[in-house]
C-alpha cells in the first residue's frame, strides 16, 4: 500500500522477546529508509522508546507530555507521575540510583553508565541472595498440584507432534511461569492440563488424580480454571455484569455482592455496564480474569495474562496473584513478559521444540540466559552476577557506594 503514515496499536503484545525485537527493528528500518511516519502505541518500550523522535504520554484522555525520550523520562520522574513505572529499564535504574548526567535509554548506554559508576572502585557486593525455598527445588518436588508425565500430542493424526514428551511438576501454592518462542507448544500444554486436548501418550494429574478420571464438569467446579489467550472466547452476554453473574448461583443480592467484590479486585467496576466487545484489549483481559476467578479454582491456568495491560494494572495483577497464592491457589502462567516473570514467578520453565528443557527459580533461570532474560540483567551482567530486576540492580548499586 506504500503508506506515508503507518499506525501500529501494540503490535508486539503477543510476540516472544526475540520476535518482538525483530519486528521492531523492521519498523525502525521502515522509518529510517522509507521515511514512513510511524505512530505506535506500545507497553513494551525497551526496543522502541530510545529511537523515537517524539514521545507522547496520555493520561485520563489528556496529553500530559510530548517531548524527546530523555526529557519525557526526566519530566515524569520530577513530577512523580506513576507513568514513570512504564519507562525502559535503564531510565528507571538511572533515576532509582540517583544518577547524574545524561540518562541512558538503551541497554548498551546503561551498561556504559554502570562502567562509569564503578570506574574508580570495583563493586564488593556483586550478587543478590538467590537461595530458593526448599519446596522450589525443581528436582525434588513432593505432592505436586499438577503433574504432567511424558505427554505427547498432535492436533491431527498425520500432523507433526506439537508436544514431544512434556514432563513438568508444579508445586502447590506457587506461580509457575512457562516462557519460550511462539509456536513451541506452550498454549497446547495448558489445554492438555485442562483436558481440552487429550494426549495420545502420557498422563496428567491434578492434585494427585488423573485428569481423565474427573467426571464431566467436575474438573471445572472449584478445581481448575483457564484464562485463554483470546479473552473474547469467554464472552457471550451483553454486559460485563451479566458475564460475571453468569458464573454465580444464589440470590440476586448475593450475586451483586460477589460481582462488586470481584469487579473492584480486577479494577473493572466502571466497566460493568459496558458490552465486553466495546472494551480495550487490556480491559477485556481484566474482565475475563474476573469471570474466571469467580469459579474459585484451586489451579489457575493463564495464557498470556499480561498482554495489553499497562504497568499500573500489572502491579495490581501481581497483587491479585499473590493473594490467590495465599488462599492456596496454584497458578501456571504462559507468558512472553520476561520482566513480569522475573519479578513475580516462583519457578520458570523454558519451553522449546515441544518440551520443557530447563526449570529453575527466576534468579537462576534468567541470570544464565542470554536472550530470554531481562533488560536489567543484560545491562548489568558484566558488573553483577545475578541481578535480574530493576530493584536488584538499584539495590546492588546502593550497597557498593
List keywords for this structure.
alpha/beta, four-stranded antiparallel beta sheet, 401 residues, 33% helix
Report on the structure:
This protein has 401 residues and is an alpha/beta fold. 33% of the residues lie in helices and 19% in strands. The chain is built from 13 helices and 14 strands. It has helices at residues 17-33, 69-78, 89-97, 107-117, 186-193, 240-245, 252-265, 281-293, 311-326, 338-344, 362-367, 375-380, 390-399, and strands spanning 5-9, 37-41, 55-59, 62-67, 146-153, 163-170, 175-180, 201-206, 209-210, 224-227, 299-303, 330-334, 347-352, 355-360. Strands 10-11-12-7-13-14 form a 6-stranded mixed beta sheet, sandwiched between helices. Strand 13 (347-352) and strand 14 (355-360) form a beta hairpin. The protein is globular. The N and C termini lie far apart (55 Å). 40% of the residues are buried.
